[in-house]
């Protein structure tokens, strides 16, 4: 391949050539005006001299053609799984490869958007098709780009971001994989709170649309909290409607919304929506009753007062009723002990009740203690921290509260140093799991010096003390929970004795477990979402590696095997291939995982349409074609190579630009006006002009 051109290499600066030429032209022009003889010959001589100064030469280039580059971008987003879209897409890609392979001057690249089901784990909220296209051609100069063919359903969400960068890119065509005139019903969450108060109502605003633009009629929307029973609501189509539910617990509350199928449906995936609301307790009310003043009393008070969301009511019994020392009552307390108000009228208002070294003294009657036992049975939380009197006939176990305590005293009190240790079961219980990594369950903790010997009758022993005796016992009683700590020396850790211990974390977990915080459930199934990866965690007191069943938003089912970590948890990972609500179950419990935004763009409109890509087609000269218009044997429009200055799209055909780019491998340069020839021509013409003037 060769190319010929004329090159100019002036012997003097161009401004000087222009000046001399202008002066010569001025003189010759005056001669022509006077009709002097030989003026035309002088003009010819002047032209020869100017050309000689410009030094023209004939350049012959040896050229090597460079292939143009075209890219085929394959949409693998979740909406491509609807109907025949995936099959049409694959047929079109195969036909494009076969057809473009015949073009010897064209390099074809195929790029597929990251598949959410693949190892790369694509985002599932939106389709970033143009970003994949520009990345595929990032190393190619614009003068070599022949164009791009996008095989998609048209729902592309990065047009505004990429469109300004497409100048000189070449034609971008869209092959649409769906059907014309599609219709669909969708459910959208217009407004939803991110948090709310426990036991208080929260309001969602939802909207049901029948696309394209159909209004009128009603639809049934069901709202379900944490997998519970659905509550139906009748809502008008095409209008924003508020729905109200009550938060049942603290932590994450998952609300599922679903609408019945519409008159036209492409997918039921966008007939569902999910909202995660973080339940926050307004104020935690804790009642702390200390049976007598002692060194560890302040440990409980400091722990509870450190949390600004805790309202603490604390009473210390300074003197039993039977003690008569002449001290006036007004000097023993600032206010009278409101026994009836606390243990009868307002008992249900407390989230947690703590008895610290309490013994039977006649201050709180058995009737009120029975009220506390009933409070626990109905869902309350009770913590008993034992003192030495728990081993005596004055023990709290000998009262109606003994019916809810999981361990009874043996009558012995151990008074010797020991280091608390997490039990084998405690290593799996969320209250004590992870406090230490040692095999014997101990840590770099300080010693305690007193323990009340107890015999558990039920519950879970999560910590042991002297000689392996039970130290901390947890139990569920009716709807409530009880914890029993068989020592009053945890305050030594808070004082930093012998380096102290994890008392703050232990007591925090203990209080939260008693108040039923979901993250501290000992037998639970949970799912957390990071991008499009779902981590399934099953917590159990016994090793349990049974596989769990995973149900996608489109009702596809699969199983995941969990790996036990010997700390009470077994985990597995699921790669989410579509946005929406994923349901995980093991036959006993169910967990929900919400992948993507509340209203993911990928599901906002799943109808096939050329409209989102219309600005790209207009800016680049491309076109949009419906694959449904073509047969299985001939699945794509005709493809032509067009010049850059010609149209690149037409009825039934699409064009890819033929740029004709090349690299020069060699150059041969020949002067057009050799010096001798120029001299002879100039002198000859001047002599001829002189001779003509002399006649």
From TrEMBL:
Annotated Gene3D superfamilies: 3.40.50.880
Superkingdom assignment: Bacteria
Keywords of this entry: Membrane, Transmembrane, Transmembrane helix
InterPro entries registered for this protein in UniProt: Class_I_gatase-like
Annotated transmembrane regions: 12-33, 40-59, 672-690
SUPFAM superfamilies tied to this protein: Class I glutamine amidotransferase-like
Keyword Iron-sulfur: no
Protein name per UniProt: Glutamine amidotransferase domain-containing protein
């Amino acid at each position: 391949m060769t190319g010929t051109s004329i090159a100019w290499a002036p012997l003097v600066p161009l401004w000087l050539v222009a000046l001399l030429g202008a002066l010569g032209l001025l003189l010759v022009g005056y001669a022509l005006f006077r009709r002097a003889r030989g003026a035309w010959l002088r003009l010819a001589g002047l032209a020869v001299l100017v050309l000689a100064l410009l030094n023209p030469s004939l350049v012959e280039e040896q050229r090597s053609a460079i292939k143009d580059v075209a890219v085929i971008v394959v949409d693998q987003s979740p909406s491509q799984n609807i109907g025949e879209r995936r099959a049409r897409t694959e047929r079109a890609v195969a036909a494009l490869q076969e057809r473009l392979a015949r073009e010897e001057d064209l390099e074809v690249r195929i790029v597929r958007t990251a598949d959410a089901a693949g190892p790369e784990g694509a985002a599932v909220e939106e389709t970033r098709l143009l970003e994949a296209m520009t990345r595929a051609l990032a190393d190619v100069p614009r003068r070599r780009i022949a164009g791009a063919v996008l095989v998609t359903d048209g729902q592309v969400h990065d047009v505004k971001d990429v469109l300004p960068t497409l100048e000189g890119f070449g034609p971008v065509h869209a092959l649409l994989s769906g059907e014309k005139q599609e219709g669909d019903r969708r459910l959208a969450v217009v407004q939803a709170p991110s948090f709310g108060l426990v036991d208080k109502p929260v309001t969602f605003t939802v909207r049901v649309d029948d696309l394209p633009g159909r209004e009128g009629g009603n639809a049934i929307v069901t709202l379900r909290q944490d997998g519970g029973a659905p509550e139906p609501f009748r809502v008008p189509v095409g209008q924003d409607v508020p729905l109200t539910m009550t938060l049942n617990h603290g932590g994450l509350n998952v609300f599922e919304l679903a609408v019945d199928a519409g008159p036209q449906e492409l997918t039921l995936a966008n007939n569902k929506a999910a909202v995660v609301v973080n339940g926050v307790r307004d104020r935690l009310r804790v009642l702390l009753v200390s049976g007598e003043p002692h060194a560890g009393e302040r440990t409980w008070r400091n722990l509870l007062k450190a949390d600004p969301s805790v309202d603490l009511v604390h009473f210390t019994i300074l003197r039993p009723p039977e003690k008569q020392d002449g001290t006036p009552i007004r000097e023993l307390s600032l206010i009278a002990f409101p026994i009836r108000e606390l243990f009868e009228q307002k008992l249900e208002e407390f989230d947690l009740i703590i008895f610290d070294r309490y013994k039977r003294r006649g201050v709180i009657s058995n009737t009120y203690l029975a009220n506390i036992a009933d409070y626990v049975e109905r869902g309350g939380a009770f913590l008993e921290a034992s003192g030495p009197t728990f081993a005596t006939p004055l023990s709290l176990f000998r009262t109606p509260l003994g019916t809810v305590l999981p361990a009874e005293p043996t009558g012995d009190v151990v008074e010797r140093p020991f280091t608390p240790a997490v039990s084998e079961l405690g290593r799996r219980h969320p209250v004590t799991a992870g406090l230490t990594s040692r095999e014997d369950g101990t840590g770099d903790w300080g010693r305690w010096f007193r323990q009340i010997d107890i015999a558990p009758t039920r519950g879970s022993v999560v910590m042991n003390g002297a000689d392996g005796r039970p130290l901390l016992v947890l139990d569920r009683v009716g709807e409530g929970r009880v914890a029993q700590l068989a020592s009053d020396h945890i305050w030594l850790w808070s004082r930093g004795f012998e380096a102290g211990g994890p008392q703050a974390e232990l007591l925090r977990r203990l209080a939260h477990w008693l108040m039923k915080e979901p993250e501290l459930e000992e037998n639970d199934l949970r799912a957390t979402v990071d991008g499009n990866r779902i981590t399934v965690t099953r917590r159990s007191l016994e090793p349990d590696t049974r596989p769990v069943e995973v149900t996608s938003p489109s009702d596809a089912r699969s199983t995941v095997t969990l790996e036990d970590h010997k700390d009470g948890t077994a985990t597995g990972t699921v790669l989410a291939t579509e946005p929406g609500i994923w349901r995980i179950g093991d036959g006993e419990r169910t967990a929900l995982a919400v992948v993507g935004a509340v209203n993911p763009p990928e599901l906002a409109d799943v109808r096939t349409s050329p409209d989102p890509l219309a600005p790209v087609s207009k800016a680049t000269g491309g076109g949009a074609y419906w694959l449904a218009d073509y047969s299985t044997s001939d699945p794509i429009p005709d493809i032509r190579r067009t010049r850059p200055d010609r149209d690149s799209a037409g009825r039934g055909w699409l064009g890819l630009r033929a740029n004709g780019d090349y690299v020069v491998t060699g150059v041969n340069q020949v002067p057009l006006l050799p010096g001798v020839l120029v001299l002879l021509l100039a002198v000859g013409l001047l002599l001829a002009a002189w001779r003509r003037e002399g006649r």
